[in-house]
Amino acid sequence: MEADVETFLVNRVGKPAEYYIVPIDECYRLVGLIRMHWRGLSGGTEVWKEIHQFFGDLKSRSIDVRESVRA
Q1: How far apart are CA 52 and CA 60, in angstroms?
Q2: SS3 letters for the chain?
Q3: pTM value surpassing 0.85
Q4: Of 11, 44, 60, 65, which is least packed with CB atoms within 10 Å of its CB?
Q5: Closest CA to 54 of 68, 28, 63, 67
Q6: Three-point CA angle 44, 50, 55, nearest 5°
Q7: pLDDT tens for each residue of 23-54
Q8: Residue 7 near residue 24, CB atoms below 8 Å
């Protein structure tokens, strides 16, 4: 990880948990989505749809490190 520009992001919503090294900007983007769409105590259905879409998009752009290490 690059200091001050990358971070370790964990998605514990689904099973199994997913782990990413991402630019800090992606974390700010996730926080912005949550703040914009959160309603009530549990967040409401819209925020969870946005969170799943965020991690789905992140996963589609990711490289599996285990696969790249084996190659």
Answers
A1: 12
A2: CCCCCEEEEEECCCCCCEEEEEEHHHHHHHHHHHHHHCECCCEHHHHHHHHHHHHHHHHHCCCCHHHHHHC
A3: no
A4: 60
A5: 28
A6: 130
A7: 999 999 999 999 999 999 999 999 999 999 99
A8: yes
